[in-house]
Amino acid sequence: MRVIREKAWSLAGTTWSLYLRMVLPSSATWKKAGDMRPSKIFRNFVKLSYMTPYLHHSGGTVCEPVDVPVNKRHFDMVYSHMRYSDKPFMGSVTAPERAQDTVEMAKILFGEEFLERNTVITSLINANSPMVWDATMLGALKVYARSNQATVISPFCISGAMSPVTVAATAAQLYAEALSGMAFVQLVRPGAPVIFGTFSSSMSMQSGAPTFGTPEPQLVLYIVGALARRLGVPFRSGGGLCASKIPDAQAAYEAANTLQHAMLAGVNFMLHTAGWLEGGLSMGYEKFIMDLDQAGMICTFIKGVDLSENGQGLDAILEVGPGKHFLGCEHTQVNFEKAFFRSSIADNNSFEQWEAEGATDLAQRAQVIWKKMLLEYEAPPMDPAIDEGLLDYVKRRKESLSDSYV
Amino acid sequence: MRVIREKAWSLAGTTWSLYLRMVLPSSATWKKAGDMRPSKIFRNFVKLSYMTPYLHHSGGTVCEPVDVPVNKRHFDMVYSHMRYSDKPFMGSVTAPERAQDTVEMAKILFGEEFLERNTVITSLINANSPMVWDATMLGALKVYARSNQATVISPFCISGAMSPVTVAATAAQLYAEALSGMAFVQLVRPGAPVIFGTFSSSMSMQSGAPTFGTPEPQLVLYIVGALARRLGVPFRSGGGLCASKIPDAQAAYEAANTLQHAMLAGVNFMLHTAGWLEGGLSMGYEKFIMDLDQAGMICTFIKGVDLSENGQGLDAILEVGPGKHFLGCEHTQVNFEKAFFRSSIADNNSFEQWEAEGATDLAQRAQVIWKKMLLEYEAPPMDPAIDEGLLDYVKRRKESLSDSYV
C-alpha cells in the first residue's frame, strides 16, 4: 500500500494541473493569486487553512509538492506549515530521518525544552494493511514517540482489497491493527500520545477502484468510533472524501456522506476535511472552499441544542401567537445575527435573482472565494531570528543531500 | 402558508421549463421520452418512481400539473398514481371534495369493502404554522379519517418565520402542533391511522429565503424523531431538500445532509426523497436520479451490520494473512456480488479513463439514466374494467365542474 500511495502522490501534481487547466482559465486574478507549481499550491492551501475559522489544523501533506526532489520535500512542507500558518500541523513520515528533521525544526520553532514537555506535532502512521507495519512507518513512529510527539495510528483499509468485503470483519481487522500500533508506541515511550486512526472505504468490485460516501464504510465508522471510546483514546477518521474528479454533485454527495457520519461516529480528529478529489489523488481549490462550508456546519451542529431560557424561546411563542410570523418579534431581533449557520457560498435566492446574477453553480461561487482569500492573506507574525534559524537549518540539510526523485 | 405554497406550486411549471430548457437541449431521445407539459412530467415522475427499487411510495403532488385547471388536477394526479404505478400514493388535500374524490377513486380501484378495512391512502395535512390548522386542511383530514385512511399531520416550520429562531423552541412548537392535529384525527374517528410529520428548515436572516441542509434543522429532526417514538407513532420527515436551482454540488451537499440526518433521526416515512430543487419550487429529472442513488445507499445502511459467521469473515483473515490482498480469497468470491452498494451513476474510474469517456459530471450521467428508464417503462397490469371505471368517474366529475385556475 505504501508503494501505491507514493505513486499516487507522485501523480497528484499532474492531475491538479489537468484539473486546474480545465476549470481555471488563466486570468489576471489567477496570475496574481498564484501559479501552478505544486509547492506553491501547497503553500496556498496552508494559507487558506490558516484563514478559515472552520479548520483547526494545518494538515500534513496537503498536496504533494512534486516539483521538489522527494528527499527534500519535507523541508518545504514543514517550513510552510510553520511560516504561513500558526495552526498545529503534521510532520514528515516518509523516512525516519525526515521525521527527525521535523522534530529538529520544531525545536527551533518552539525551543528544545518546550518540546520535551509539550506535544506540538501529530503525525500520520499508516498500517500497510492487512496486518503489516512496515519499517518506514515504524521508523518515523519511533522518532516521534521518543520525542513525546503524537502519532495517529491508522489502519488504511479499502474493504475487498486490504480487508474482507464485510463490515464486521473490516472493523475487527482495523481494531487489531490499530491496537498493535498503539501498543508499539507505548513500548517505545510509555505514555507517548496516540490517536486511533481509521481510513475506511470500499472498492468497486467491477473495476477495483476505491469508492467513497457509500453505506458500508459509514457502518465501519460507528463501530470503530465506539471501540476507540472504549479504549479511551481519541479517534481519527474523516473527511470530505470522494472519487469524483471535479467539484460536482458526486463530489458533494460523497463528501457530505463521509463528513456527517464521521462527525456522528464521534471523530475527534477529522483528517482530509477539505479539498479531496479523485480518491485523494488531487486537491481542488473549489472543493476545498465547498468543504469548508460543511466544516462550518459541523462546528455548529456539535455545539448541540441550547436549552437555556433564551433557547427555549417561550416568550417568542407567547408574543407571536397563532397565525402570525416571528420575523419581527423581540426574540428574533435579539438572536437573528447568530441564530443560524450562514453559508458563504450557498445560493438560496429566487430562480429569477439567481439567473440575473449569472446563474452560477456552487463551484463557480467557491472559486471567487478562494481567489479573494489568497489575495487578502497576511502571514502570522514570527520572530525573525526563529525564521532565520529555520531557513538556515533547511539550507544546510538540503545542501547535505543530493536530489532524489524516487 | 397555504397561500404561499399554492402560489409556489403554480410557479413550478414555469420554473421547470426554464430549468429543462437550460440543461436539456431538444433531441430525438427527449422527444421520444416525453414533452414539457407539466401533467406529462407528473406522469413521468410516477413512472420513474414505479421503476426504482429504492422508493416504496409514489408520492402525492410530485409536481404541480399547472396545465390542468386547479379544480381538476387532482383527478389526473390520483389517476396517474393508480394507473402508472402500483405503489402506495397520497391523495388530494386541497379541498374536502377533492379528498372525497380520492377516496371514491380508491373504492373503484380496491373495492368499497376492502377500503373500509384497509388503509390504502396516506395524505399530507400541513399545519398553517404557527399554531393554526385551517379549514381546508382539516376538511381533507376529516374525509380521510372518516374513511379510515392515514394522514401525515405535518407542522411546516421555517424557523425564523413560522417558528422561533432557536432549535428547542421550534421543536416544542412542532410537537404541540403535531399533537393537536393527531388528537383531532382521533376525535373524528378513534383509531384512524396518523403519522407525526415534520418539515423543518431555517431561513436566511438576510433575505428571508428558506435554507436547506444546514445544522439547526438537523438538530430539530433528532428531537422530534425521539418525541414521535415516545408517542409510539410513525415519524415523517425528509428528504433530498435543497435550495439550489440546478443539480450541482450545492444541491448534493444539502440533499445529503438532510437525507442522512433524517435517516439517523429514525424517519419512517421519508417524504420528498428525490428530485427537489429550489426549495421545492421545482423538480429536476437529474436531481431525481441522483437522489435515488442516495436512497439506495440508505436502504443498505439501515440493514445494519451483518454479524453472522460470514459477516465476521474470520476465515478470510486467516486465509489471506499479513501483507496479502483479499481480492481473490474464497470469502470475497462468495460475497463480492452483494458485498457493497453499487451506484449506478458515480464515476470511480481513473482521471484518464473518466476523461476518455467524456469527462462527464454526475448530472450528465443521471440524464442518460432517466431517459433510458422512460423509454423502457412498462405500465403495471390493471383490470380493464377497473381502468374503465376510473376513467368514467373522472370524466363525469370533470364534466360536472367548470374550469377554475385559482
For the largest interface, the chains and their residue counts are: A-B, 109 and 109 residues
- The dominant shape of chain A is globular
Helix content of chain A: 40-55%
Q: What is the tally of helical segments of chain A?
A: 17
Order of helices and strands of chain A: HHHHHHEHEEHEEEHEHEEEHHHHHHH
**Average pLDDT figure of chain A:** 91
The chain-level structural class of chain A is: alpha/beta
Characterise this structure.
2 copies of one chain form a homodimer. With 406 residues, chain A is of the alpha/beta class. The first copy, chain A, is 52% helix and 8% strand. Chain A has helices at residues 2-23, 28-33, 38-51, 73-84, 96-110, 112-117, 135-146, 167-188, 215-231, 249-264, 285-301, 309-312, 314-320, 330-335, 351-356, 362-376, 384-399; strands at 122-126, 150-154, 156-158, 194-197, 199-203, 210-211, 235-237, 269-270, 276-277, 282-283. Chain A has a 5-stranded parallel beta sheet. Chain A has a 3-stranded mixed beta sheet with strand order 3-5-6, with helices on one face. In chain A, a hairpin with a 6-residue loop joins strand 5 (199-203) and strand 6. In chain A, helix 8 (167-188) runs parallel beside helix 9 (215-231) and helix 9 packs parallel to helix 10. Chain A is globular. Chain A starts with a helix and ends in a 7-residue tail after the last helix. Mean pLDDT of chain A is 91; it is low at 1-34. Chains A and B meet through helix 1, helix 8, strand 6, helix 9 and helix 10 of A and helix 1, helix 8, strand 6, helix 9 and helix 10 of B.
